Amino acid sequence: MSVDAIFERRQRAGAPRRATNADSDSVIDVLTAAFATDPVMSWIGRRDAKRDQGRRAMFSYLVKKLGLPGNELWTAADFSAAALWVPPERADLKQPWWDEVIMIPTIVSFTGLTGLARVDAFRKSADKHHPKDKPHFYLMTIGVDPRFQGQGLGSAILDATLASIDAKGLPTYLESSNEKNVPLYKRHGYIVTSEFRPAPDAPPLWGMWREAKAR
Ligand SMILES: CC(C)(COP(=O)(O)OP(=O)(O)OC[C@H]1O[C@@H](n2cnc3c(N)ncnc32)[C@H](O)[C@@H]1OP(=O)(O)O)[C@@H](O)C(=O)NCCC(=O)NCCS
C-alpha cells in the first residue's frame, strides 16, 4: 500500500461528513466488518454460521434507528471509517416500550435465542456505569475497515468529530470494548471512569469520559 494512499485515506477520515440514507448500506458494511473480532460483540453475538449476518442486522438497526435520526452518524467519503455519536437528549439510550418490542427480532438475529440474557446483562451493566449527571455526547460505535486499521483513520475521524462536539462545549462518554483501544482514547483526552464485566464469563469494558476541550 502506498504512503500516498494511506495519507489520502487519513485525510478523508479527518474530514468526515454526516451520513445520509443513501450511505447507510456502506456504513453498515464497514461497522460490521470492523467488529468481526471485537471481544464484547463476539461474546454477546451468536456463535454459529449466521454470526456475521446477525452482527450486520444489529448495526443496521443502530444506523437506521439511532444514527440517521440523530444526525450524528459520520463517515469518511470512501466509507473506510465511521463513527456514530448519540446526542445528549438521547445519550441515556432509553427507548419507548414499543421500540423495545420492535427491536426484539433484531436482537434475536444478532444473538440467537440463547443470547437474550447476554444482551440484557450487557445493557444493565452498561447503563449502571453510564454517567447521568451531565449532558454529554455518547460514542455508540466507531469502526475502521479492517484492511486499513492502524493507519490513523480511527484517530482522524475521532478527532474531527470531537472537534465539532468541543465547539458545543460538551463532554463525551464511551465504553471501550477492547483493551487495545484504551490507549487510543486516552491519547484523545479520555479518562477511565469504570471497568466492568456484564457477566462473570464476559470480557471487560472500560467506561471513559472526556471533558470538552478548548481548541
Ligand atoms: C478502534 C479503531 C476504531 C481505531 O482505529 P484505527 O484507525 O485502527 O486506529 P489508529 O491507527 O488511529 O490508532 C492506533 C491505535 O488504535 C488502537 N487499535 C485498536 N485496534 C487496532 C488495530 N486493529 N490495529 C491498530 N491499532 C489498533 C491502538 O491503541 C493503537 O495504538 P498503538 O498503535 O499505540 O497500539 C479500529 O481499530 C477499529 O475499528 N477496531 C475494531 C472495532 C473497534 O474496536 N471499535 C471501537 C470499539 S470501543
Q: How would you describe the overall organization of this protein?
A:
The protein is 46% helix and 17% strand. It is built from 8 helices and 7 strands. The protein has a 7-stranded mixed beta sheet, with helices on both faces. A hairpin with a 5-residue loop joins strand 2 and strand 3 (81-86). The chain is globular. Bound molecules: coenzyme A (COA). The site of coenzyme A has 20 residues, from strand 4, helix 7 and helix 8.
The percentage of residues in β strands lies in 15-25%
CATH architectural designation: 3-Layer(aba) Sandwich
Rg (CA only): 17 Å
Main structural class: alpha+beta
Q: What would CATH call the homologous superfamily? A: Gcn5-related N-acetyltransferase (GNAT)
Helical residue percent?
40-55%
Q: Strand order of the main beta sheet, please?
A: 1-2-3-4-5-7-6
User: Which outline best applies?
Assistant: globular
Number of helices: 8
The averaged pLDDT comes out at: 95
* Helix-strand string: HEHHHEEHHEHEHEE
Number of domains: 1
Per DSSP E runs of 2 or more residues, the count of β-strands stands at: 7
CATH domain class name: Alpha Beta
Described by its quaternary structure, the protein is single chain
Q: Give the termini separation.
A: 33 Å
Largest sheet: 7 strands, mixed
Q: What ions, cofactors and ligands are bound?
A: coenzyme A
Q: What do we call the CATH topology?
A: Aminopeptidase
Low-confidence regions: none
